[in-house]
Every structure is written in C-alpha cells, then in structure tokens.
Amino acid sequence: LRESIFNILSFKVSGTYVLDLFSGTGAFGIESLSRGAQYAVFVEKSGDALHVIERNIRAGALEGQTRVIRWDIVKNLNCLRRIPFKYDLVFMDPPYNRDMVQKGLRNLYRCGCLNRGVCIVVEHSHSEPIPENTMGFAVSDQRKYGKTLVTFLTDML
Predict the structure, then answer these.
(1) CA quadruple 53, 58, 62, 63: dihedral sign
(2) What is the reported pTM?
C-alpha cells in the first residue's frame, strides 16, 4: 500500500516538508525522506510508537532531518505552531473507525501550518468516508485497496 501511495505521489515528494500524523512506526515520513523530502515531523500519542519512530530515525541516521512530537492530534495541533515552517505533504493514518479522520482534518485546517497546494494523504476505512469538500480541503483522488481507502486532498484556496 505504501509503495502504491508513493508511486502516485512520484515526483511531488522531493524537497518537501512532511508532516506524519498518527505516525505509528513513522514509515510514511521516513519513506518521504528517503525519496528526497527536506524534513519530516512525526506526531503520535502512543509512547510505545514514539520509541519505535525514534529507533527507526536513528537506524536511518535521520536525526538532523526530523522532529518527533508526542501529542493528541484529536484534541488540537497547537504543537505545530512552534515549528518555523509549513508543510507541503501530510500523511494521516489514524486508527480505523474511531472518528479520528474528521477531527484530525479539522485540527490540521485550524493549525495554520500548511503551505498553499498542500497534498494530504489519508488512509482510512471505507466505513469512515471523507466528504467531497471538508474543512477547506477538496478530494483530488481516492483509491481502494481491499477494505482500505486512500484519499488525497488538497487545499481549496
């Protein structure tokens, strides 16, 4: 699935600032760096997942290109206001069917941390659809992989 996503993104990754929300292992952000992204910020609530992300960053010698933040994305994304740049590419892979997609998108929109033309990639369950126009974002593409949907959004500015 991750390879399919990056094949779709192809040349859009190089030189970008990446935000990996609900990071899990950090796979999306780390893969982005391996494909030429400038910098990646990982936001995750779980302490166990954060340790995995940090270990994976060390294994790839990516410490100078990353920042890891422990934060509850569903509450807000105020943690991003202290970071001096805006994001070009955002990955969201929240736990399925827990009503986190809409809340995550709402908080992402409210944080004011996105560059114009941002690409947001959301991996989610088909039973938790994303409306066509949501929180200032528009669906630009959607792909189905088994029971998983991958929705690509962009800003409507």
Answers:
(1) positive
(2) 0.95
